[in-house]
Specification:
With about 450 residues, the chain is α/β, with parallel strands linked by helices. It folds into three domains: about 120 residues, 2-Layer Sandwich (Gyrase A, domain 2), CATH 3.30.1360.120; about 130 residues, tRNA modification GTPase MnmE domain 2 (Four Helix Bundle (Hemerythrin (Met), subunit A), Up-down Bundle), CATH 1.20.120.430; about 130 residues, Rossmann fold (3-Layer(aba) Sandwich), CATH 3.40.50. It is about 45% helix and about 15% strand. The chain contains 15 helices and 13 strands. The strands form two sheets. The protein has a seven-stranded mixed β-sheet. Strands 9-10-8-11-12-13 form a six-stranded mixed β-sheet, with helices on both faces. A hairpin with a 4-residue loop joins strand 1 and strand 2. The chain is flat and about 80 Å long.
Length: about 450
């Protein structure tokens, strides 16, 4: 028989847990011969399906015992990949899983490629492509907001929205096809306004998804909060205090900070509210005029971060310093600027607009973080765990392509500039762009790009 070009005839095996010292290691086997291959290694065989059984593992070549492990069989199609799957939980470390993988290879299993288990799940209809990408997002999540967004996508939140938009466009295509193929029917031609309205509804749905792109970036990496001010304004001390550890070098020498340091801070929900956005704190070089070339490079880095900021903490040890920093920063960014007096431990202030804090004593830090979150929410909205976010550039590009094709269709249709069959080409292109998000079309190079970013064993 000819080989399956997708490699589904192969039985694959890989370590599904991180390599190195640990209590347990999990080796996963999937494919048409999974049960037969593991049966040459594990005894007694076969165990009951979906029940973890303690079995002895032996090398099929030498009979040497490898380990005693918990073995669980998942018969197709009720498994992660849709194939016969075996998961083997051995003792952790390096030697035991390496010996087991070598034994499986000797029995005929092929080492899995990155993301190949999840790719097989897509090919067997267990997940669509957007859900599969959510698996990768969940593994790579740096923030709790990204974890929640990935789970929403894994549950099909984004896929359902994309599928509904696709159906809406197919409905528009059907209206055009009826008008083209049956122009003399008793119902008469389809009103142009009906086609225009249906296409516009779909375009607005696409634009609503694209509007979540900024929120998706914040969920993935955190809202960029730049700590700005002149040298020796207490920026690095504040950064360390907010981050909860000494990450930045603090000295009395001006210009110590030459590059940007980052730390992600996540706050607990307040008063039963939704969990707030994570904050990506950026400690930057002091803003001042200087002839020092290296320090000047650090200031240029600071200014680049300011242009990307979602919020800025304008710091100073005096009111005058804070005002000057606000003026300097305001010329670079349109992000919300919070005025921060960093030397509260040296005295009191009667200026209510100032957020008075002390990195030394911790006074005012909680209020500063809360005010920063409020500023980000006021600009970008609050996190909604039920709202599907567009977090991947591939999805954004596909949605933008669909939107642009719909705009071209609307222009041609409204102006009656093209025959209906020609204008419909734009609709077909928009449908294809949406289909590429969820994998409703077989695009092999898209699959290669998506799963090439996965870890082996997933």
């Amino acid at each position: 028989m000819p080989r399956d070009p997708l490699g589904l005839d192969d039985t694959i095996a890989a370590l599904a847990t991180a390599p190195g010292r640990g209590a347990l290691a999990v080796v996963r086997v999937s494919g048409p011969a999974a049960f037969a291959l593991v049966g040459t290694i594990a005894a007694p065989w076969p165990p009951a399906p979906r029940v973890a059984s303690l079995l002895a593992l032996r090398d099929p070549r030498t009979g040497e015992r490898i380990d005693r492990a918990l073995v669980t069989c998942f018969p197709a199609p009720r498994s992660y990949t849709g194939e016969d799957v075996v998961e083997i939980a051995t003792h952790g470390g390096t030697a035991v899983p390496a010996a087991l993988l070598a034994a499986l290879a000797a029995a005929g299993a092929r080492p899995a490629e990155p993301g190949e288990f999840t790719r097989r799940a897509v090919l067997h209809g267990k997940l669509d492509l957007a859900q599969a990408e959510a698996v990768g997002e969940l593994i790579d999540a740096r923030t709790q907001a990204m974890r929640r967004a990935a789970l929403t996508q894994l549950d099909g939140g984004l896929s359902r929205r994309i599928a509904a938009l696709r159906e809406a466009l197919l409905h528009v295509e059907a209206l055009l096809a009826y008008d083209i193929d049956f122009p003399e029917e008793d119902d008469g031609p389809v009103p142009r306004a009906r086609v225009t309205g249906a296409a516009d509804d779909a375009r607005r749905g696409i634009e609503a998804l694209l509007a979540t792109v900024p929120a998706g970036a914040i969920a993935r990496d955190g809202a960029v909060v730049v700590i700005a001010g002149p040298p020796n304004a207490g920026k690095s001390s504040l950064f360390n205090a907010l981050a909860g550890e000494a990450r930045a070098l603090v000295t009395e020498i001006p210009g110590t900070t030459r590059d940007a340091l980052e730390a992600v801070v996540e706050l607990a929900p307040r008063d039963g509210a939704r969990a707030p956005w994570p904050l990506r704190l950026i400690d930057t070089a002091g803003l001042r005029a200087t002839d020092d070339r290296v320090e000047r490079l650090g200031i240029e880095v600071s200014e680049r971060w300011l242009r990307r900021a979602h919020a800025v903490l304008a710091c100073g040890e005096t009111v005058e310093d804070v005002v000057r920093t606000i003026d300097h920063v305001g010329a670079i960014t349109d992000a919300p600027i919070l005025a921060v007096w960093t030397k509260r431990d040296l005295g009191e202030t009667r200026r209510p607009p100032l957020l008075a804090v002390s990195a030394e004593t911790g006074v005012g830090l909680d209020a500063l973080l809360a005010a920063t979150v409020d500023a980000v929410v006021a600009r970008h909205g609050a996190p909604d765990p039920d709202l599907p976010l567009v977090t991947r550039a591939r999805h954004q590009r596909a949605l933008e392509a669909a939107r642009d094709e719909l705009a071209a269709f609307a222009q041609a249709w409204t102006d009656d500039a093209l025959p209906a069959p020609v204008a419909a080409v734009h609709l077909r292109a928009a449908v294809g762009a949406l289909e590429s998000v969820i994998g409703a079309v077989d695009v092999e190079d898209v699959l290669d790009r998506v799963f090439g970013t996965f870890c082996v064993g997933k």
